[in-house]
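tool_log.txt
---
The assistant was asked to compare two proteins side by side. It first ran the structure predictor on the initial sequence, then on the second. Raw inputs and outputs are pasted verbatim so the downstream comparison step can read them without reformatting.
(1)
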Amino acid sequence: MAMLPITGRNRTSQNYHQNKTSSAPLSGPMQGASFIFLPPQLFCRNNKLPDSEKAYQACFSQKLVISMAQTPHREGSKVVRTHSFAFAGVTAIPVEIQVQISPGLPAFQVVGLPDKAVGEARERVRAALASMGLALPPRRILVNLAPADLLKEGSHFDLPIALGVLAAMDILPASDSAGYTSLGELSLDGALQPVNGVLPAAIGAHACGLGLICPERQGGEAAWSGVERILAAPNLLAIINHFRGTQTLPRPEPAGQAEGSALPDLADVKGMETARRALEIAAAGQHNLLLIGPPGAGKSMLAARLPGLLPPLTPSQILDVSTIHSIAGMLRDGRLITRPPFREPHHGASQAAIAGGGPRARPGEISLAHHGVLFMDEFPEFSRQVLEALRTPMETGQATVARAAAHITYPARFQLIAAMNPCRCGYLGTPDRECVRAPACGDGYQARISGPLLDRMDIVVTVQPATPTELMRAPPGENSASVAARVEAARQFREARRQSGERQNGAEPSLSPEVAAFAEQASLRLKLSARGLTRMIRVARTIADLAQEADISRLHLAEALNFRVRQWRG
């Protein structure tokens, strides 16, 4: 490469670049060196050459050249790595936080597709270190969140970024912190604030063979995962002291189970024998139930007593339900949920609130009701978009939130209990009060629920209000404990059938030729769809389970037929 002098005022940048390929060889100690030639504009203000020839000659009387071979050698800046997680639904995806402090203008930059909360982490980290008397070095700090094509959301990246910066500053031993994954939000004084997703992150850390560092208040939640090394710290200083050997953070104990309030008892319900029977069948077979009746008939009262009939969650179900609630930030004090959840959204809720979504694709009510009950009172008052959004999750048991970059799926195997009035005024078909706009009032109101959605309701029952005489003189009904015992026995009977190889209630049970012919005739007469026929047979199978009978009889099928939607719209 040639070394060209710049000596004339007419030596413009264009002429310079055109002539820089001169092949004049170098000799002496400069031979074999690499050079970067700088145009004169780089040495002058406002990209203009000096006005006076004297000033020009003073600036460029010598050949302008920088020798890369003669610049001082600097060792490459080391890269420190810490670990955390990003969340896609209930799945914790490992994220590596790479921190490099290198020579250059003072800057603190976070790259790797961070959202606004992650981008603001640099200011929280700076303030937290300053509260401990530590200042960031006047150098260039670069934080990379890998993989770079995965969106990083949430303030829980504060802690792993801070640990990486401290390790790069040689305040923490990088080898020790590399064996942990961490998550937590930093306050300006260095305190660790609770974040969402500690339980799935702890499960992910256990799968990766890493320890976990989390806020002190969430140590009990993380302990349920089985991770051996858990550091539940109140602040950033406690973590520093632990790794430097001046303080020991004890391993947290698993938090207790969530304490639910006393469940209402079914004994409070007087009369309503048909509705009570429907509630028992729905509890035993996890069937969807639609309650129709005038205002004050007791629809909401019946629905509120369903959780008292359901058995506790199994260990795997406890983990599934608690993980979803952890992602949503709804685990109180890290206590796992052991009872089937009961969700009761308002009829003004949006589609994102019910089915999931929002800026960060959070789980909706149908996912929060996973392995539990979703009660939707005033069913037709929900928007059409909300009602239609229920159809696919009711079949698949999953709720998918579509985004431009990805599709996020949450579990949503819930039992739907819906309640509604027969018409807008609520009194269509009641003996003591007349609907003044019948039948148009009822037709328009009922039409808000589409046929495909109604077809997915396994049991439809009309709730007639109890008379004053029944309320005052009728003895208390059977209590929840007695009904729950029958429900548990029916589920155990069903489980025994599964283990023996028989297909479960979720598939169409086998029928004897006589019962199959009866079901065919009933389906033709009631004009049931294939889905409606299948769901009717499932209900009959549950009725047989409650009776501890292996085969479905015509009596079981007849009772199931009594709960089909034809009784309402016929």
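(2)
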Amino acid sequence: MKRFLPAVITSAIVILLIVVYFYSSIFITIMAGEAGVLYRRFAGGTVTDRVYKEGFHVIFPWNSMTIYNTRVQQRSHSLSVLTEEGLKIQLEISIRYYPEADAIGLLHQKVGPDYLEKIVIPEVDHTLRVFVGKNAVNDVYTSKGASLHNIIVEAESEVEKNYIVIQDVILQQVILPKQVEAAIEAKIEQKQLSEAYQYRLTRETQEAERKKIEAEGINEYNAIINQSLNKDILKWKGIQATQALAESDNAKVVVIGNGGDQLPIILGGQSGQ
């Protein structure tokens, strides 16, 4: 037994050195939000029917593991496009995307880790160029910052064939030639001024109509009062007022008949005299 001990020790040391040297190729840790694809060098190549989930894995050193980020990712991108009028503008966009976790093996086999540059960006660019080419520059400019739903639908239908999902496409900025941007802003400002002026006209018209209705109401009221007050009623009201004044404790009055149908004349009026 002692005769084989040196050979055993030597073999153990060699194996240990091999393990240390190939440690990163043998022991694989897949972090949260990731998935792995195994490539078997001597056993059929890419494994497409199994996805290696999060956790610790051990593989042979001659095989390799490619790890994919399966979380939603975002990529800013800019491109130049032509509008319906043939005007060249620059678009600043943001793409949100992620690979289908259960189809990572097929994605790796058919496209590879650089699927963003190969599939996602070219497809979004193509769809954007078609969209902008069918619209006037003013329509594109005023949609700045909006989520372009039709672009998402069209682009997603193409990239899904390669096991990728486009979650959103955001048009962040539209960069126009300075003279065109100034003309569009002036047009928008004039439109706003016109709407404000029209609002003031409507408000003044409504106020004039209100005053007209109010005046008509006052005229009708006065007409009704004039019809209800005849000469005898006015004379009777005058007599009642004169009588109340004559009976007042605060004044002594002298009443002299005025004759005819006229009301009495009241003289004096100072108390204590």
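---
observation on (2): Residues 29 and 192 are 60 Å apart (CA to CA). The chain has four domains: 5-69, 73-176, 180-228, 232-268.
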